[in-house]
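Question (not urgent): is this output format expected?
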Amino acid sequence: MLALFKKRETVASVAPAVSAEPMRSEGAESVYALAQVLQRDCSGLGLEAAQLRGALDDCAAIATGQTTALSQLQAQAHQIAQAQQRIQSETAQSQQAMQRARASVEHVGLEVSGVVSTLKQVSEAASQITQVALQTRLVAFNASVEAKRAGEAGLGFSVVADAVKDLSTQVESISKAIMGTVASLDQRIQSLAQDLRVDVPVDAKADQDRQVHLALMGAESAVQRIVEAAGASVGLSQGIQTQVNGMGQEVQTVRDALADASKRSERVLGVSERLMEVIATCGVETADTPYIQLAQQVAGQVAERLEQALGSGRISLTQLFDERYQPLAGSNPAQHSAPFNALTDDLFPALQEAALKALPEVVFCIAADRNGYISTHNKVYCHPQRPGDVVWNTANSRWRRIFNDRTGLASARNTRAFLLQTYRRDMGGGKFVLLKEASAPITVQGRHWGGLRLAYRF
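Got this back:
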């Protein structure tokens, strides 16, 4: 841009004297106007690039969350498939057990039929015993009559005949009792045998006569349906798992594409920032010039105060450049302490707070060491943290924190005269503010301590 100025001046110097001054003035104004247009366009490009980068970051965060959710879903689907396979295996074993139970019942039915046959034999034997008892009692009666006819000679025989008659009576009574018991038992066993039969024709009467067998068949049929349902469920679960795996691969592809797009948008953002810097360094007054000058001014004041503190012995050079940050227990987002906290709390507020009022739209003015550590923030952002309230802490408790993101580190480690950046500031809870930031290096006794960050809306 300076070369363009020189070229126009050279052309003007060889023109006629009467027209030299108007041409030079007209050329300078044209270049100045062009520079302002370029500055506005670059600023707009930076705005769009920052918004695009933010949108890509949001999409990448969503894709990352989806990847995590899909990973969990894959694990759960795998567990479900394993559980369903176990169910299928257990129900198959249950089906086999039911088949064995039904076979056992059929065997019991056959055995019961044998018992029925045996009971019939017992009943027949008892009937024969009864007949024998009747005949014995009849013989005993005849013997008793004959003994009475014999008089005293048949007296002993009469006693024996009476005893035999009484015994036969008891045998007959016992035999009849046996027959009655066998008949009752036979009826019950017949009913049980009927329930266990498998060869009864299928009709209403059969359904009433073989309840046990039908119950076992119903249970076996139900188990078979469970086996079939478990098999279908396993197949469905495997299909779902395949689809989830495919979705995971697609989401990963989207993540990769978003990462690539984010890198490209960052390069576009970097180009717009470099163009704004080039225009600003050409001496052309732009909308960013006052903020750049203010950042440089405050950076010089901070450096001066730190050197005075070193000269007076308030702090040593080792302490001022100490990078051993100590985590503050229970802080979220994480806060850290440093050996120079007390000094910055004393020196920085006056300079930083004054800068907030020096120009319109200034959001914050802070000094960061070369690692992005903010020892002392503006007062509005220096509130003590609220335990458990991460969203509030993120927005209102920004001191004693390390901001080592792209913008924070670039500002903290920049050693050029100034640096212009455009970015989204995370305020917590999904809220962002689009800002432009001018930063200038802070040098103490020839060493780069950090950078002065001045952010403003545009």
